[in-house]
Amino acid sequence: VQLQASGGGLVQVGGSLRLSCAASARSVPSYAMGWFRKAPGKEREFVATISWSGRSTYYADSVKGRFTISRDKAKNTGYLQMNSLKPEDTAVYFCAAEVGEIEDPRGYEYDYWGQGTLVTVSS
């Protein structure tokens, strides 16, 4: 499975961006999807995850109420809608997939990772 993240860019404080993560393979399996980010000088951190069915979502406290994770299973694509962006949201954002019909993806290591897309929030 290959994951292609896109949608990053430069945005002002309070602005919005929507990241996309397209999965491709000869036969794309069922998977739960997560978003992570890595800021300069910091370790990678969890942002959000969505179950295989799309019915369950989980967020880091730092983004709860501002970010929304979703997916379109027919398109094998996941999304991260980011609103009310803050300078501390500046990071490279990675999407990841955990294969399986997983309804609670929290705590998984994730099997596949995308290449990352840079989000820069300017003040």
Give an overview in words.
The chain is mainly β. It has strands spanning 2-6, 9-12, 17-24, 31-38, 45-50, 57-59, 67-72, 77-82, 91-99, 112-113, 117-122. The strands form two sheets. Strands 2, 4, 5, 6, 9, 10 and 11 form a seven-stranded mixed sheet that branches. Strands 1-3-8-7 form a four-stranded antiparallel sheet, with no helix packed on it. A hairpin with a 6-residue loop joins strand 5 (45-50) and strand 6 (57-59). The mean pLDDT is 96.
Low-confidence stretches: none
Largest sheet: 7 strands, mixed
- Number of continuous helical runs: 0
Ends apart, CA distance between termini = 37 Å
Short description:
With 123 residues, the protein is an all-beta fold. The protein has no helices and 11 strands. Strands 2, 4, 5, 6, 9, 10 and 11 form a 7-stranded mixed sheet that branches.
Which tags fit this structure?
123 residues, 11 strands, four-stranded antiparallel beta sheet, seven-stranded mixed beta sheet, mainly beta
Write the layout of secondary structure elements.
Layout: E1 2-6, E2 9-12, E3 17-24, E4 31-38, E5 45-50, E6 57-59, E7 67-72, E8 77-82, E9 91-99, E10 112-113, E11 117-122
Parallel strand pairs: 2-11
Antiparallel strand pairs: 1-3, 3-8, 4-5, 4-9, 5-6, 7-8, 9-10, 9-11
